[in-house]
Amino acid sequence: MAQTAAELSYTPYHRETSAFSGIFSWIFSTDHKRIGILYMISVLTMFIGGLCLGLLIRLELIAPGATVIDAPTYNAVFTLHGVIMIFLFIIPGIPAIFGNFIMPLQIGAEDVAFPRLNLLSWWLYISGAALLIIALFTGDKLPDTGWTFYAPYSTATEGNISLAVFAAFVLGFSSILTGLNFITTIHRLRAPGMTWFRMPLFCWGLYATAWIQVLATPVVGITLLLVILERGFGVGVFDPAIGGDPVLYQHLFWIYSHPAVYIMILPGMGVISDLLPAFTKRTIFGYKAIAFSTVSIAVVGYMVWGHHMFTSGMSGTAQIVFSFLTFLVAIPTGIKIFNWIASLYKGSIELRAPMLYTLSFIFLFSIGGLTGLVLGALATDMHVHDTYFVVGHFHYVMFGGLGIALFGAMHYWFPKMFGKMYNEAVAVVAWALIFVGFNVLYFPMFILGWNGMPRRYYDYLPEFQYWHVVSTIGSWILALGIFMMLFNLIRGITSGEKAEDNPWGASTLEWTVPSPPPLLNFLEPPHVTHGAYDFEAMNKGKKDSKKKKKGKK
Amino acid sequence: MDHAEHHEEHPMIGYGTYISVWLALLILTSLTVAIAGFDLGQYTTAVAMLVAVVKTTLVGLYFMHLRYEPKVFHYMILVTFLIMVVIVIFTFIDDYRFSYLNHEVQAEVHH
Which of A83, A107, A318, A459 has the fewest other C-beta atoms within 10 Å? Predict the structure, then answer.
């Protein structure tokens, strides 16, 4: 390919010199791409920590009774697994890593709207993580409430809850600032010609997510502060012994934490909507339907929190209303699934590693979503509430959804971020291990739950052991796959082949810039003339520019 | 972009406006305090909330410049309020029923 003089002489973002050198040129950088990489390193480190705790939980459950850890430690381990995976991995996950790195490139901006605020978000994230780690090593007892910090136990236990809760509060601020930044960036910094309906669907996903981050996170912030107030000063908000109402805690907690599952999943759905056209070489089916369903999931998602409390003694009227609203979420979700499947029709499908993750996402997320309806229906929820069925559902939706989408995104945008390529064959083997391991690990949980195995239990009846053993073996396969994938990607960074600017032949704007991109992203200001997935217009544009170059010669 | 230009163009707002808004806020605060002295029965909360809404609107429109900003910000704030209203109503429908039940239980215990 002929390169212009400007392309040959550009400096990639990671070689750019600044006022600081060494590690400081990263941790004090306001470049959205460097911040994206910082998030990638910190979020994945936390993920590995949470993963090890998860393996420990599964190992403990391989046989009834005590096997490797004692019961109080077990309670602390599943609490930490939850807190780390939720607050430090899946909530920041895709928006903080790929939202930061890719979104400005996709809309044709030089950076996010508030670069310094962006850096502050990362620092808040690190502070929150540090506080959480301090909470583990100080105080008399490890936090053992489960990741939900349910009152009145959380306001009464001796565990080091106040600090852990404060850490979650600080992490919330990080999330709010990222959301604020993305809303402003998408409203104000789109390149000329980049209309709302020409934006890649990943940006739509981030936009809807950002609104939830800004509007829902303050609720949990206040709730967590109320827990600290009750613990520290005996203000009776949640503890009935001093005039509080524990169900109020559950309301306030889930007013945030239910929309928060959409903070986790909407960016993942955005990734899938971007990857499908890239590997089928055709426009996405139902662009507007997917965009609007993203927004409607965000809106309806606000009004379904009560379905976490069906058995908490909620009023009958509220139960029916919340159950009905929960079913409504299935409509926009179904619209997405059907549109994605329709996008495969008559496409020229290439089964590269990112595409394999994309197809796995659709499969696993559908199982997760449909089992969600079992939990959303009042009658069946009474039966399976607080059993392993819920754990299975949750992991299918969150890990099978967001986690798999994140892995897909890591492979898809890898050449753009690092200018290198990973080993495709190893990536495919790692994917196969992850996919098989995932199902062996989590599917038995549905069976266990249906048969009445309660969640969060340290011990169980011998009749449950068979499926627990299967599940534990699955956890080893899954972990092997994940470590293989990470090893392959790290090896790609250190010694991979040099990547082209657009190795996938994708149509969105980030692939028009060099890999890795220069400091301010675009060598020439982009002017957008067609939709994000318009391959025909993209190819026509390429031909035209070649003709122009020939004409000049 | 036209939004950006619009932003810089918005009219200078005199001290007079700010001082009048401030006075209005003070008067409304005294109103809240004064009303607290009367027994309005079930309307107590409603009236207090009404005054608070007027005050919030004034702060939003003048101190936070909403009056001079493009429509898109009005919609954003409106959506935010609507969501908050829904959240509060849903929570309190359930919570009120709870306190009602609790009273019933307590009454039975006392009998």
Answer: A459
